[in-house]
Amino acid sequence: MAYILDLPRSLPEHQARVGIGLRLIRFIVCAVHSRIHTWMVWRTVQNLQRLDDRTLKDIGLPRGEIEFRVRELMPRDW
Description:
By secondary structure, the protein is mainly alpha-helical. It has a domain at about 35-78. The protein is built from 3 helices and no strands. The mean pLDDT is about 85.
């Protein structure tokens, strides 16, 4: 005699909680990663802004392009 199995249509409660926990951890890690990246860009720009014009000219970086160059060289996917 054949039986039809009633398969659950959703995840059991325990697995659903684990999934939510993993998504929360992933969200927190992404937020921390983004904040660290923003801080690193800010710190690099500040350090370069402290240099005098002659030093910036020696390394080939006009003062007006500092932030653009830093953001260009420090992509978010590090």
